[in-house]
Design goal:
Elements lengths: L1 H8 L5 H32 L11 H14 L9 E2 L10 E9 L3 H8 L4 E6 L4 E9 L4 H10 L3 E11 L4 E2 L5 E2 L1
Helix pairs in contact: 4-5
Length: about 180
């Protein structure tokens, strides 16, 4: 690969030179992103729709990111977030807003044993507002059941979005999900 050969043959550059190279690459990437945006604008016109985000297809974007991860060398954490849209959902991980009362150490431990969550205290009924990641294959009912078994009462639940699995590329180039 060209960039690996450059590492062996390029003369030592100063910090200022390296920063200038990064700035040059950033400008080139920005130009390409703007060009991509212009193509998306044309795509929207071809599809004859003005709905905001209608040209965005999270499943397609997630597939594109997977292809990038597979060919990438170096550090590249990747995720895609999608709004609930019937023909465009990427549901590797669903994000649920769950409001509970009776929040405390036991429900927090039960939830932590199952999935990732963010809890914001809610003064009403010793409650909490939760943002919970529910991976594909794990029923929401199991998460709710664990909370109830641990002493919490679920007041409401709502799907707020979803995203593709997170991909991590190790220093050796291996991809994990």
């Amino acid at each position: 690969m060209a960039h690996r050969n450059m590492e062996r043959t390029a003369p030592a550059l100063s910090l200022a030179d390296l920063r200038a190279e990064i700035d040059r690459i950033d400008a080139a990437m920005h130009d390409l992103l703007m060009e991509r945006g212009e193509i998306i604008d044309r795509l929207i016109k071809v599809k004859h729709t003005a709905e905001t985000g209608s040209a965005f297809r999270p499943a397609r974007e997630a597939d594109m990111m997977r292809r990038l991860v597979e060919r990438h060398h170096g550090i590249l954490p990747v995720f895609a977030i999608a709004r609930p849209h019937p023909d465009a959902l990427v549901t590797d991980v669903e994000m649920w807003s769950i409001k509970v009362s009776g929040w405390g150490p036991r429900p927090a431990q039960a939830l932590a044993a199952m999935t990732e969550a963010i809890a914001v205290p809610d003064g009403a009924f010793d409650g909490a507002a939760l943002l919970v990641s529910v991976p594909s294959g794990q029923p929401l009912a199991e998460v709710i059941g664990a909370l109830v078994k641990a002493g919490a009462s679920v007041r409401s639940q709502a799907l707020v979005g979803s995203h593709a699995r997170r991909y991590t590329v190790g220093a050796d180039g291996t991809v994990s999900h």
